[in-house]
Amino acid sequence: MTEAAIVARVREALKAVADPCSIAAGAPVSIEDMGIIRDIRIDQRGVVVSLRPTSPYCFQLDLISAKIVEKGADATDRAILVDVEPIDDWEPEMMAPDARARLRAVRPGKSLAQ
């Protein structure tokens, strides 16, 4: 299987990982649709999933990382590693438009970019 195919399989598997805060808000959104997956690449260690947290103070990163490893392992036999890049700012515009609309519907007081 090519590296591109492995990355595509892992990306597809990660659509099953929901952002915990969106679950708490009552509108589960995948980490892919939230825009927090910065990159998925393969290096000598395995498949590396780079994240940009929605906040540098996100206390759910351990849970999200564990779910990434779990679901990523379903897609490949290579090691799954998570790299968090907190200095890469997340913006609401990085969300998929339908995900932004669903969250805006349940959190009308929160500012989510149009």
Strand percentage, roughly?
A: 15-25%
Distance between the termini: 39 Å
CATH superfamily: Fe-S cluster assembly (FSCA)
Shape: globular
Number of domains: 1
Describe this structure in words.
The protein starts with a helix and ends in an 8-residue tail after the last helix. The protein is of the alpha+beta class and 114 residues long. It has a three-stranded mixed sheet. The chain is globular, with a radius of gyration of 14 Å. It has one domain (3-106): 2-Layer Sandwich (GMP Synthetase, Chain A, domain 3). Helices cover 40% and strands 16% of the residues. The protein is built from five helices and three strands. The protein has helices spanning 3-13, 20-25, 31-34, 61-75, 97-106, and strands at 37-43, 46-51, 80-84. A hairpin with a 2-residue loop joins strand 1 (37-43) and strand 2 (46-51).
